[in-house]
Each structure stands twice: as structure tokens, then as C-alpha cells.
Amino acid sequence: MELDMLFKEPNSGGGGCPSIYLAESGEFVIQGLTLDSATRNNLRNVLPGEGAVRISAEILLGAVAAYRSRQ
């Protein structure tokens, strides 16, 4: 799967996270810090193979703006 970075935390330095990518399939891929166990336990209906990461609102909004500018 090819990924195109839409937006990355500007203060993270280098190529680190958190980041949001657009996959060639049109889906989004989120790179970020994994949740601690206590927070993960609050998720509902987590299926095998699924995971969750956390990102700031700034990252999400930056990715949305980048995505819209490409449309």
C-alpha cells in the first residue's frame, strides 16, 4: 500500500509522529503513540487486529485541510 503524508506534528522533529497519511485506497492511516492499557480498556468493540493511537486536534485539522486542498 502506498502512503502519502498529509500532515505531521510540526514540533516532533524529523519524520516522527504523530502523522496522518492518505493511502492509495483513499483510506487514512494514523501514526501516533499507542494508548496505555487503562485508556485502551475504554474502547468499545475492538476486534482482533485493530489498534488505536492518539493524536491532537491540530494534527487532525491539519490533515483535513491538506486533504481538502488536494480535492
How would you portray this structure in words?
With 71 residues, the chain is an alpha+beta fold. The protein has one domain (3-70). It is 25% helix and 27% strand. The protein has two helices and five strands. It has helices at residues 37-40, 57-70; strands spanning 3-8, 19-23, 28-31, 33-34, 53-54. The strands form two sheets. A three-stranded antiparallel sheet has the order 1-2-3. A two-stranded antiparallel ribbon has the order 4-5. A hairpin with a 4-residue loop joins strand 2 and strand 3 (28-31). It is globular, with a radius of gyration of 13 Å. The chain starts with a strand and ends with a helix. 11% of the residues are buried.
